[in-house]
Amino acid sequence: MAAEPLGTQSIQAVAPASAPDLERAAAPERAPFDEPVTDWRQRHLLDVDSLTRDEILRILSTANAMAEVLERPVARTPALRGVTIFNLFYEASTRTRSSFELAGKILGADVINMSGSGSSVEKGESLVETLNTLSAVGANAVVMRHPASGAPWLAARTIDGHIINAGDGQHAHPTQALLDAYILLREFGDLDGRKVVIVGDILHSRVARSSIWSLTTLGAEVTVVAPRPLLPASMAAGAAEREHPLALPHVRVSSDLDEAIVGADAVMALRIQNERLRGKLLPSTAEYARRYQLTAERVAEAAPHAIVMHPGPMNEGVEIGVDVAHSPQSRIEAQVSAGLAVRMAVLFLLIRGGA
Fold first, then answer.
1. What is the C-alpha separation between 339 and 84, in angstroms, rounded?
2. Which of 157, 159, 156, 142 is nearest to 90 (CA)?
3. What per-residue string of b and e applies to 257-279 under the rule 16 or more CB within 10 Å gives b?
4. Which secondary structure element, helix H or strand E, spans residue 111, and what is its range?
5. What homologous superfamily is domain 6-173+337-352 in, according to CATH?
6. Cα dihedral sign for 17, 303, 295, 254?
7. pLDDT under 50: residue ranges of the chain
8. Potential cystine with 107: which of 80, 137, 148, 299 (Cβ 3.0-4.6 Å)?
9. 141: part of which helix (H) or strand (E)?
10. Residue 282: its pLDDT value, please?
11. Which CATH architecture has domain 175-331?
């Protein structure tokens, strides 16, 4: 029987099928890779808050098609042949940068990596000057990571090419949020009413912000858990009533992980950075681990089918126990694998979408 239409959010429409499933279900519908995606209207991916529910699902269903490409003996397609993509990373990255590089190459694009070190940035060249240079040499798209929140928005106003935000400051990380949503949809088929707990440094986490937007847009009930110093002002008591200018979508806020995790469908731990501890936002690593580490005992209080996630890199033994990180419930390695298909989908839709 053919997979249901995307609007139903069936698991077949958003996740790679297993080998037996491929015998029983038709491939999800998608635009041919050699034709423009005429119904796609987004030119850039700056954050997920600008995406509708249908647009998020379109990205994830396209990622499902890309996952099928990755299963081929030779995982290559000429979808972006003749396109030049620059990876402009002002911050160190392993997973995001390498997956964007591989995504572009699999799609047939020419991919060029740049970083702040070893470039004219070290000589004082501004971001605008760098972008203008890339535009002048024919960049069709720029994937950028920058320590300044808002830098991708400046880039989108500077050049005509497509801008993909690979992480800006403490603000947004849209492709990480999309791949996390992909994992959850693959697991559950539908996020309406699913309980997702995000625990850790919410204040400084661009992953948490973007994930809150994507998951709530898809219908999940999100609870964020953190000690009070690691919560943003927009989540302080009464912030919603005051219409805080940085307010995120409605989520439940808690400082008690043991209470929040009960019955959860998925739990995502965020990395605790040592520099935050040195800044005295937390009393000690041991104290944080005692109250907020994802341990096997805590995960056992979640739903029996619950999964565990982490955007990486992990501090095993701090925010997540070693046994939990490598348990059957863990989807952490799957998140890394999903990142490639999702980033292929983003590049394809933005560049071939004609916006």
1. 21
2. 142
3. beebbeebbbbbbbbbbeebbee
4. strand 110-115
5. Aspartate/ornithine carbamoyltransferase (3.40.50.1370)
6. positive
7. 1-32, 123, 238-242
8. 80
9. strand 141-146
10. 74
11. 3-Layer(aba) Sandwich (3.40)
Nearest to 311 by CA among 177, 217, 151: 177
In the block, tokens 């979640």 appear at 302
Place of tokens 């928005």: 153
Three-state helix/strand/coil letters over 161-182: CEEEEEEECCCECHHHHHHHHH
**Which pLDDT value is given to residue 21?**
45
What pLDDT does 17 receive?
44
Distance CA 210, CA 176 (A): 8
Identify the DSSP state of 294.
Answer: B
The answer to whether 146 touches 127, Cβ cutoff 8 Å, is yes
pLDDT of residue 284: 80
* Euclidean distance between CA atoms 62 and 81, whole angstroms: 18
Check: CB of residue 320 under 8 Å from CB of residue 310: yes
The pLDDT of residue 242 is 45
CA–CA gap between residue 138 and residue 128 (Å, rounded): 15
Give the pLDDT of residue 248: 76
Q: What is the pLDDT of residue 280?
A: 67
Altogether, the residues listed in the chain come to a count of: 355
Measured between alpha carbons, how far is 178 from 338 in angstroms, rounded to an integer?
9
Taking a C-beta distance cutoff of 8 angstroms, is the pair 6, 62 a contact? no
Those residues whose C-beta lies under 8 Å from the C-beta of residue 118, and which sit 6 or more positions away, are none
Q: What are the structural domain ranges in the chain? A: 6-173+337-352, 175-331
